[in-house]
Amino acid sequence: MSKKYWRGLPELHNSPEFQEQQKNEFAEPLPMDEFLSSDETSSNGTTRRDFLKVMGFSTAAVALAACETPVNRSIPYVVKPEEVTPGVANFYATTFYDGHDFSSILVKTREGRPIKIESNDMAHSHNGTNARIQASVLGLYDGARLRGPLVKGQDATWKAADDAVAAALNGNVRILTSTIISPSTKAVIAEFITKHPNTKHVTYDAVSYSALVSANKNVFGKSVVSSYDFSKAKIVVGIACDFLGNWLSGPEFAKQFAKNRKVTKENPDMSQHFHFETNLSLTGANADYRYMVKPSELGKVALSFFNEVAMATGNAKVSGDDKIANADASKAIKKIVAKLIDHKGKSLVVSGLNDEGVQTLINGINKMLDNYGKTVDVENHSNLKQSDDKEFTQMVSDMAAGKVNVLMTYNCNPIYTAPASLNFAAAYKKVAMKVSFAQVLDETAQMADVVCPDNHYLESWGDANPKRGMFTLQQPTINPIFAKPRHEGTRQFQDSILKWSGIKSDYLAYLQGYWNNRVYPNQGKYLDFPSFWAHALHDGCVKVAIHKDAPVTPLATDSTGKPLMEGVATAIAEMMADSSKVVKVEPIAKKKEEKAEEVVLPNPDYNKAGSMAASLKGGKWELFVYEKMGLGNGNYSNNPWLMEMPDPISKVTWDNYITMSPTDVKEMGLREMLRQDIHGSIADLTVNGVTVKVPVYPQPGQTPGTIGLALGYGRSAETLKVANGIGVNAFQFMSVINETIQAVSLNVNIAGTSEKHLFAATQIQHTIMGREEYLLREVSLNEFKSNPKEYWNPAVELAVHGGGKTSVNNVDLWAAHPRPGHKWGMSIDMNLCFGCGACVVACTSENNVAVVGKAEVAKTRDMHWLRIDRYYSSDMNTRKGKEEGLGSKEMYIEMENPSANPQVTFQPMMCQHCNHAPCETVCPVLATSHSTEGLNMMTYNRCIGTRYCANNCPFKVRRFNWFNYNGNEDFATVNPAQQELGRMVLNPDVVVRSRGVMEKCSMCQQRLQAGKLEAKKAGAPLKDGSVKTACQSACPSNAIVFGDLNDADSMISKERNDERSYFLLEDVGIKPTNSYKVKVRNQDEQIIFAEEAPKAEAVKETEEKHS
Amino acid sequence: MKNNISRISLKALIAIVFTVFTFSNQLNAQDGAKLFKQNCAVCHASHTDQKLTGPGLKGIFDRAPKGDWLKNWILNNEKLIKSGDAYANKIYNENGKAAMTVFEGQLTDKDVDAILGFIKAPLPAAPGVTPGQTVADATNAEPQGSIDPLYLILGAIIVLAVLLGALRSVRTSLQNSVRRSEGSEELPDLTFWQEAKAWMGQRRRLVGVIAIILLFGGMKSCWDACYRIGVYYDYKTQKGYKPEQPIKFSHKLHAGDNEIACQYCHSSVEKSRHAGIPSVNICMNCHKGIQKGPQYGEKEIAKIYEASGFDPKTGNYDNSKQNPLKWIKVHNLPDHVYFNHSQHVVVGKIECATCHGNVKEMTVAEQKSPLTMKWCIECHRKTEVVMQGNAYYDRLHKALKEKYAGQYDVKFTVDKIGGLECAKCHY
Predict the structure, then answer these.
(1) Chain A residue numbers touching B396 (CB-CB < 8 A)
(2) pLDDT tens-digit map of B258-296
(3) Is A419 within 8 Å of A731 (Cβ atoms)?
(4) Is A280 in a helix, a strand, or coil?
(5) Which residue among A6, A192, A815, A889 sits deepest, i.e. has the most Cβ atoms within 10 Å of its Cβ?
(6) Are strands A89-97 and A235-239 parallel, antiparallel or unpaired?
(7) Which residues in chain B have their CB less than 8 angstroms from residue A848's CB?
(8) Could you count the other beta carbons within 10 Å of the beta carbon of residue B157?
(9) d(CA A273, CA A701)
(10) H-helix or E-strand spanning residue A273
(11) Percentage of residues in chain B having pLDDT higher than 90
(12) Which residue of B has its CA nearest to A78?
């Protein structure tokens, strides 16, 4: 018997209603009728047929609409300018100076569009480029640029802007500018001052060099910044001075410094470089010896040097506390001073601290070392930095007191850059009439009453006097992009000032008048001004025989009060129209023989300087703000190329962070981020009572107890779409110490938080992990000199079956291919590569490399064809591991940690164009193949995106287009190629790659082809050096040499035959086209321990590890 | 019609030329006319006073000093000016010191005589061929501001449709009133469509024929439209692409009949990757004088004036009225291909016609070669590199000779020096 279950009482009772209900499947009737009988469906609603009709129609309509005439139009000029040939680039010499970096450059234009910056080899000096100068061309096409003047924040006409300014031009006027090195611009300002006598011109640099000026005044009676010649210095001592990067004139100094770093067997002399600093700077990373010092003690380092040198040279010591916490550093100072004394007149001590006391001591040291007139020159001084911090702070207090009625800011952005302690914003609001000449609506321009946007430098006329005796010209390479009739347009600053000075002449005529009067008489090469002008404009640079500063007073006027310059412009125009004509224009102002000024040398008070230098009292934490190679002082923050350029040291992109010593990070319990793809912590940084949230980056080489923070980030201006919201503004943390604006803050506190932060770094591992021999060969100068090549640069050998070894060149899977025509080769000297990153940006600019933004970089999807690998040394090495009896696992784990104060090596890495390329053999569609000229070719139109090649590349230089970066709107903000304006910068000779294809360094194939074609057309052999890759020509220190290996006399053949030359991963048998040169460190310590045969050990251990 | 007239007048001109001149004179003048057209017509009007770049030559034999002066001037005007010749300097100054080309070396004495003979001989009126014909005639010939016939037809259709509707309602009401008076039943109130259907039902054959005509007409116009936008030709190769250009420019007339060198207009062909579409000012070099063409009269040439802001009445340019011409590109390569004209023309010494066909016969520019990669490669496989006499190739030539030493009949074609490699054209 089975039990019976009921579903409920109704079933038990089994009533007739229940029986009836059981017949229906659904307990309740479905609302079918209601649904079907609704008015919409049954009568006039959408029926299936209607739906199909509509669908059919819309499909047809879409198809019809897509039937746009698929024609390409070709629109020729109406009147073709004589110098423009479509498809052929023109180069114009001009000058880059943004108040921060200076370079004499060539601008490549195509069909009238500037697309690339090259260094100007016609200039005698000052012609190196850095990343910012390379990237500056993109600034021309920045969508954030103002299209016309603003009055009270509203678009206005130029007339309205002029009227508004003219109406307010009374009372005290201040013109606040960054350093102006254009003598004619200074004369223009002088014209304005003549017209409005209550005007004062105040110079303010965001990163100030005011102390150097004061120090030279103290010691030499000259308020100037000295010029330096690192090429003559055999011993260089830097105290927090990033001279290879951002200090004063980085590219110029890098070029000079490189001259003493190029070591050959024949000429094994090399300068020695000692560096004392807080953060690991680019220059510190390249030093032979580097010492970590807290910011508060940097002055004491200078003081110790002064006292040691004084003792050695028999001069008076200076009292003052010169004790340094770092015992190594104080011990080293004594040794270094001995070397300095040995190299009197051939040494150089520099400091980047903007402290009058320190700089006075440095002057004293160089004076005692007899370096003046040799490595330092105060006579032929530099003009690049002229700011006066005292004047600036005075002006701010005047403004706060309501004593300034009109303030004009040109090429500076004090709301953003002034230290918080000055409270500039509050003072600014008290000025009745605020005029800004900013090109973009930056933080200062946002608050200004009238904004008169200046032209971009590539649209401007101008001149420059970077160094005494050197003059350069700036010429427009394009008409102003924003001009009538579409826009109200931009106007050059000088034109605005001339107009407001009541001078009815444009700046070009004024400039020519100025050059005729003040520059032309100082030279003896050209007999008439027009040809002098034409040549100066062509070369971009003039060296005058008479080293005289061009006066910056207004030009002489005629009886009607007009400056005497009219005749000049017409004469030049006539000469330009007919080159056979020689028009003589007499210099209007008669040449006057000026007597050399008698300078009475002041008696410098070194004791005062010493106590000033040692006056800083450090706390638990000390903050040192610094400039990055990418953003510098923030002039080009809105430039996506620079944002995406990895920082040379940290390799982090798109980010601002505080750098702390890894030991400090560990102690504070913050995330150690042992690999760069692991999140970091966010900390609360409090400086002078202001707290900001910043990610923490553990930086080997950072002095314990100190914090580094980069300038140029934290832009709040909303129009700066790329930069807005990235990082914090470090300028606010600068302090006014000893009346100068210093990069140091001593009232600092830091507290960790539990928040995480993702860094987008392009290099994940820090160290070379015992693979020095195959990738990163280094040697000390001693070993280099005293040992044969086999010791420090051994040939790579492979073990063969049956015992014995043979050269890797004898072992080959493939037959060699002939290279009958050209055989390209590249050599990179790791001694000369300082890692500055100019080549990275140059490559981006030349090859239309896409910008991908932080999120993609964090996924290792950066697109740079050329990267610079940075390796830290580790305290652990194979020999030490063996000595300590460590197992290989422990050893390799230990090897991953960089030293606390690591030695750094930079290795530019691009496609090595392997002659037996692993990528080529795995491509299923032959999209990558080898040329008869020895290059590994990448054919985008054939690529189907399997990415096998990237997998098989031992150098990870192949880049895959995961998205259509040039069209996908997710990248619209970061990728300039997506904007109507930004697209103008693209190189028309290089394809813009689309989604799903692989790309990589092509060795600037377009340049090679163009160079070959020129030679073929001329019917002459290709001249060595006539073809340069973009990275090569951008490199300020000439670390990269490129050329034809089949030409025995070429530079590259010589480099390749050099003893220091070696190939990367040669043991794999890939036969790279690129070679590197062994890095030589001018150190006494042994670097190589080849005699202990670590190679065999390493191989064995690796085997053990794998098993 | 107009074409016929100009053709007839051309014939008339030739007939007159034959009858009026003596045999020797005719030879001279014919050569002279050609030489004049080639060398002088750009700057001078031969038989009128009209000043182009240089003065009109009517009455030149009365004005200029007698003897060999004219000949000397034509051959080397610079020398004559420098020699201090009074009349030469006067002319030079009067014409804004614009230097005239020195023809010494280009023209022989005989040529100059022929040119002078041409100028001396009277030229009968022949519209459309005389350079520098007066402008007043030109403007009379063509009525300004014609209306597109399409709009006329559309307008007529609308008017007819309205008329039809009105007539129909009038007819219906009239018929109804007749029926009402007759007392019979009123007509059913049919819609227009119902009535039309009934009407068509009665005349099926006619409607069928009309429908077929419309269908074919529509197909033809679709075909034509596709042809104009370049859809219908061989899609893969684009060979035969022959788009209608904004100006009915004829290569046949310019390069064929008038023998203007290709490089005169496509001036960057030897310098650049692009051969270059001539800028309007190059057109104006000649068309400042030649204001009327043989086929389309002033209509097409007026488009150049419009583009350049030139006013043929005053002879002045107004830069603010410039309006660039938008030519349609005939030869299109994909973006990922790099092609360089100067490489092929200067280094490879390839004739234009090798790829572009006989342009001299084309009234409308047409793509003659497929421009496919196969086509490029086939040519690279069989074309020998011109190595002799080009020092660039010396080393390569030597190496290749060594490589192929002993082999008979080896040609150093482009592919042998890497001309088939991807990165030579794709980067």
Answers:
(1) 820-821
(2) 889 999 999 999 999 999 999 999 999 889 888 888 888
(3) yes
(4) coil
(5) A192
(6) unpaired
(7) none
(8) 10
(9) 17
(10) strand A272-277
(11) 29
(12) B280
Q: Note whether ipTM > 0.90 here.
A: no
Q: How many residue contacts between A and B have a Cβ separation below 8 Å?
A: 158
| Residue position matching structure tokens 């291919």 | A817
For chain A, how many residues are written? Answer: 1107
Domain B2-133 classification at class level: mainly alpha
> Phi then psi for A211, rounded to 5 degrees?
-65, -30
Return d(Cα A661, Cα A700) in angstroms, integer. 6
HSE-up of A577 (CA within 13 Å, CB side)?
Answer: 8
The per-residue DSSP string of A687-742 comes to: ETTEEEEEEEEE-TTPPTTEEEEESS--B--TT-TTTBTSS--SGGG-EEETTEEE
Q: How far apart are the two ends of chain A, measured CA to CA in Å?
A: 70
For residue A1000, the chain B residue with the least C-alpha distance is B427
Residue length of chain B: 427
Question: Could you give the C-alpha distances from A914 to A919, A935, A1065, A1071, in angstroms and in order?
Answer: 9, 8, 10, 5
pLDDT in tens, B25-39: 444 556 777 788 777
When mean pLDDT is compared across A473-487, A1049-1063, B99-113, the lowest value belongs to B99-113
Q: Rounded to whole angstroms, how far apart are CA atoms A126 and A469?
A: 13
DSSP run (H or E) holding A807: strand A805-807
Closest-CA residue to A1000 (of A1106, A881, A919)? A919
Q: Do residues B237 and B370 lie in contact, with contact meaning Cβ atoms separated by under 8 Å? A: yes
**pLDDT confidence bin for A883, thresholds 50/70/90:** confident
Taking the domains of chain B in order of start, what are their residue ranges? 2-133, 149-229, 251-372, 373-427
Distances (CA, A) of A447 to A410, A416, A870: 14, 11, 42
Predicted confidence band of residue B231 (pLDDT cuts 50, 70, 90): low
Percentage with pLDDT > 70 across chain A? 90
DSSP A746: E
The pLDDT tens digits of the residues spanning B52-77 come to 677 888 888 888 888 788 888 888 88
A929: nearest CA in chain B? Answer: B422
Q: If residue A185 lies in a helix (H) or strand (E), which one and from where to where?
A: helix A183-195
Task: Determine the pLDDT at residue B127.
Answer: 42
CA dist list (Å): A448 to A25, A151, A156: 79, 8, 14
The CA-atom distances, in angstroms, between A887 and each of A781, A1101, B287 are 32, 9, 89
A929 touches chain B (CB under 8 A): yes
Determine the distance in angstroms separating the CA of B394 from the nearest CA of chain A, rounded to an integer: 8
Nearest residue on chain A to B226, alpha-carbon basis: A69
Tell me the pTM: 0.82
Instruction: Report which DSSP code applies to A849.
Output: P
CA–CA separation, B106 and B79 (whole Å): 16
Asked if the model's pLDDT at residue B133 lies above 70, the reply is no
Catalogue all structural domains in chain A, each as residue range(s) with its CATH number: 1-67 (no CATH), 89-141+457-481 (no CATH), 145-208+387-453+489-504 (3.40.50.740), 226-382 (3.40.228.10), 505-539+549-593 (no CATH), 619-761 (2.40.40.20), 772-1102 (3.30.70.20)
Substitution target from A1016, A1029, A1046, A1050 for chain B, most B beta carbons within 10 A: A1016
Peptide bond into B122 cis (omega under 30): no
Tokens 């559309």 map to which residue? B154
Contact state of B346 with A942 under an 8 Å Cβ cutoff = no
Task: Report the 10 Å Cβ neighbour count for A810.
Answer: 9
pLDDT score of A598 more than 70:
no
Structure confidence at residue A574 (pLDDT): 64
Please judge whether B281 and A71 are an interchain contact, meaning their C-beta atoms are less than 8 angstroms apart.
no
User: Which two three-digit tokens encode residue A380?
Assistant: 């032929």
Here the tokens at position A5 are 């279950």
